[in-house]
Design a protein that fits this description.
Shape: globular
Largest sheet: 8 strands, mixed
Number of domains: 1
Radius of gyration: 23 Å
Number of strands: 18
Structural class: alpha/beta
CATH superfamily: FAD/NAD(P)-binding domain
Strand content: 15-25%
CATH topology: FAD/NAD(P)-binding domain
Helix content: 25-40%
CATH class: Alpha Beta
Distance between the termini: 25 Å
Length: about 525
């Protein structure tokens, strides 16, 4: 049942077995699973059924350090279905190694092992109508070209992508689910003992208010908003509330960018068997699998680097130093970054017209066969979500995002490029020419990062409150009836897109909540 603000505002209070805040991939999949076990669910969505600028504006804030390529507002959506409204559908399992502790990566390792997610990955594949394993580490399908010396991986693409329309009928018909639309969680209220949530306050943008009291509460608002809501709620307490100092810390994402041009040998494999765009064009959506080539585990261990993959496609020409300056200036003017130097402005001011023409020509034309990387990010305490002094229309403090990398991310890209270049030569496939942006700047990642939509780590899972925010069952340390769901609980993010694992964790949490209820 869907209930908009004109109806729910007439009630003084709502109750249920479980209240889920956020109706994206995490919240919807959890709600449907709990309802199947006859648990009553209140699914609280801050946005309306359709997109609105006033709702999206609540995602605004400031960003420091590395700019999010699409900004705070542009990298997620705030209406029914959440960011599944722009999801590409790529599904992949985290690697076995992603769950294990690495001596060279502080705070690495999950408190659970991959085998504990195996049955939930299987359930998620069925839920998304995928009839095969994803990210299979075995033999590559015959239609793909392998690159010897690299681990073959792929993402399977589901056609079940727009959750708002895919599950509208189920949500509407369910007797166990009530979906509140335009219902913004404006604060979590704790009992005097501070060991449980007593209620949450829900507001509409036009000032309507209702209280929600349930047995269990689940935050499923996304990798940034889960932390922001917790931080705001801690600040709102009249009595000082013991805040887990890890809340908001260790923000991570997947750095993605072109890094090299590929010059193939005349006798090399057909370019279309490498080119992900060519593969996508000739493959039906329901059969689409996008190949990746992973840096082998033994190389990661030898070189002390992170999990990383590459893929190949036609791309625009590489960035020149002047173009990198233009890119930074663009990010600055769009409010995505505060990082700009006098040298950048000088380079752009010297030849503005030619640079602008170069920009338009290269962003609209794909002129080179290029390699691009996608790597994990190491847990970094200097990369975090905090609160700014500015408040939104609900009275909540806005996000202040600080995205920073450690030296290991750049080292991973360097090792990855060198290793792939070596494999191309050994297999007589061709040569790689590393982009100038990497050759001229030995410290930073390229300016034109393509990541910024896989927000992770800000309420990380751990065996101890000293190193995490939630335990292995996703329960907030010290609060008996509050859980957090989504990529914000990922201790590390591997290289794989997160949505498939988010849904698997939703099914795992559902099993836990059902056991607790019985």
């Amino acid at each position: 049942m869907f209930i908009d603000s004109s109806i729910w505002s007439e009630s003084a209070e709502f109750s249920s077995d479980v209240a889920i805040i956020g109706a994206g991939a995490a919240g919807i999949s959890l709600a449907l699973e709990l309802a199947n076990h006859n648990m009553s669910v209140l699914l609280i969505e801050g946005g309306e059924w359709d997109y609105s600028q006033s709702s999206q504006e609540l995602y605004s804030g400031n960003s420091l350090g590395v700019p999010l390529p699409y900004g705070l507002q542009g990298s997620r959506l705030r209406f029914m279905g959440g960011s599944t409204n722009c999801w590409g559908g790529g599904c992949g399992e985290l690697d076995e190694e992603d769950f294990t502790k690495k001596d060279w990566v502080p705070l690495s390792g999950w408190p659970i092992e991959k085998h504990e997610l195996a049955k939930y990955y299987t359930r998620t594949a069925k839920f998304l109508s995928i009839n095969e394993p994803v990210s299979d580490a075995g033999k590559a399908p015959k239609e793909f070209t392998v690159l010897d010396g690299m681990d073959f991986r792929y993402l399977t693409h589901t056609t079940v992508v727009r959750f708002k329309s895919e599950f509208e009928d189920q949500l509407s018909a369910s007797k166990n689910i009530k979906v509140l639309l335009g219902a913004n969680c404006a604060g979590i209220r704790f009992s005097r003992t501070k060991k449980a949530v007593s209620k949450i306050e829900v507001l509409s943008l036009d000032g309507k208010r209702v209280l929600v009291k349930t047995k269990k509460y689940v935050l499923a608002c996304g990798g940034i908003e889960n932390a922001r809501l917790l931080l705001n709620s801690y600040e709102q307490e009249i009595d000082p509330c013991p805040v887990n100092m890890n809340t908001g810390k260790y923000f991570s994402d997947h750095p993605i960018a072109p890094c090299a041009s590929v010059i193939l040998e005349p006798n090399a494999s057909n370019i279309s068997s490498f080119d992900v765009q060519a593969i996508a064009k000739k493959t039906r959506r329901s059969d689409l699998r996008i190949p990746y080539f992973r840096l082998p585990t033994k190389i990661q261990e030898q070189e002390k680097v992170l999990n990383a993959v590459v893929q190949f496609s036609m791309q625009e020409n590489e960035l020149t130093p002047e173009m990198s300056s233009l890119w930074r200036l663009k990010n600055y003017l769009q409010g995505k970054s505060t990082v700009i130097t006098f040298s950048d402005v000088q380079k752009v001011a010297t030849h503005p017209i030619s640079l602008f023409r170069w920009y338009l020509d290269n962003r609209s034309n794909q002129k080179r066969f290029a390699m691009r990387f996608q790597i994990e990010q190491s847990p970094n305490p200097n990369s975090y979500v905090a609160l700014s002094d500015e408040v939104d229309d609900l009275g909540l403090k806005k996000t202040s995002l600080h995205w920073h990398f450690s030296p290991i991310e750049r080292r991973t890209v360097d090792v990855l490029c060198q290793y792939v270049a070596k494999q191309f030569l050994l297999e007589n496939q061709g040569v790689l020419t590393i982009d100038l942006s990497l050759r001229n700047d030995k410290v930073n990642l390229p300016a034109d990062l393509r990541g910024g939509q896989h927000h992770s780590g800000t309420t990380r899972m751990s065996d101890s409150s000293r190193t995490g925010v939630v335990d292995r069952d996703l329960k907030v340390f010290g609060i008996d009836n509050l859980h957090v769901l989504g990529s914000s609980v990922f201790p590390t993010n591997g290289w794989v897109n997160p949505t498939f694992t988010i849904i698997a964790l939703a099914f795992r949490l559902a099993d836990y909540l059902v056991r607790e209820e019985s």
